[in-house]
Amino acid sequence: MPELPEVECIRLCLQRSCVGSTITLHKLTREDIVGSLCFPRGRRGGCQTKTSKSRLLDGTKLVGFERKGKQLAFVCSGGRSLIFRLGMSGQILLVDVIDPDLKHVHVAWLLRSKGKSKYLLFRDPRRFGSILPCKDQRVLSEHWNRLGPDALSISCNDILCMTKGKSVGMKALLLNQNRMSGLGNIYVDEALFQAKIHPQKKSMSLNNKQAQLLAFSIRKILSRSIQSGGTTLRDYCVPNGSPGTFQQMHKVYGRQGLLCTSCQSIILSDLIAGRTTAFCPTCQEK
After folding, report:
1. Which of 13, 228, 238, 241 is the most buried (most CB within 10 A)?
2. All domains of the chain in start order, with CATH
3. What is the pLDDT of residue 53?
4. Marked catalytic residue, from 2, 5, 133, 239
């Protein structure tokens, strides 16, 4: 589930707490969650190939954390980095002691800084996530460039370029990470409602005014969610364990059958672009 706001909140928490720490690989319990840029979903199917400690940043120092869309990168000394794809249930946790009863912890690192230590965990109960080693900054940059513009800084011109000549519906287009990176089901529904655009509206029919409003709505909603710590529906929390609260501000997502806060119509739900989609039939007239 983690989308751009949730990943950005994770990044900010790690940036405050972990920069300058030396990192030691404590344990790797599932080899198959380690993928590559060619196989970003990891090496599923009972992979037995051993991953070297150096590929998982063992013995390096954390110098920063970068994000593009819904992906997060740990950047270390020497230029090496590790991209995290959190999938549907991935968590990155910072703990003083590893709870032996905590299940689905696939990787654990020991971080040391100024005489203090803590553990950084990658946990993913549903195992749709993965981690992708990058040997240097050039490889990481090339990977970022393959993704669409980051939704947090999307512009009207970006939207117009995305939609030009595209007959696909707006929801399907906004979910495509190669067109714009960072949005998933929650924030696409919220942004389209804010911009008063029906999720099935054909992309090529979007005019300049609608594109401008959509770009503004996307940036505004994502920024508000980041300020609220993101959306917590089930698994998501920031590394220190705190949940987000933006779910309390949703206008349409998860509100099927309830009254629209703008016009008092009933919020409807339909399967659009393969995803359960909530929208207001009055505010977002087709």
Report:
1. 238
2. 4-146 (3.20.190.10), 151-279 (1.10.8.50)
3. 83
4. 2
The burial of 125, by beta-carbon neighbours within 10 Å (0-12 exposed, 13-18 middle, 19 or more buried), is given as middle
pLDDT digits (tens, 9 = 90+) for 189-217: 999 999 999 999 999 999 999 999 999 99
Q: What is the pLDDT of residue 134?
A: 95
* Residue 41 Cα to chain centre, angstroms: 15
Element (H, E) at 196: none
Q: What's the whole-number average pLDDT of the chain?
A: 94
pLDDT band at 50 (very low <50, low <70, confident <90, very high): confident
265 in Cβ contact with 283 (< 8 Å): yes
Query: Which stretch of DSSP H or E encloses residue 138?
Result: helix 137-146
Choose the catalytic residue: 11, 67, 68, 70.
70
Check if 27 is active-site: no
pTM of the model: 0.94
Annotated active-site residue 275? The verdict is: yes
- 27's tokens: 């344990």
Q: How far is CA 254 from the centre of its chain?
A: 19
47 pLDDT exceeds 60? no
Looking at the DSSP bridge assignments, the partners of residue 180 are none
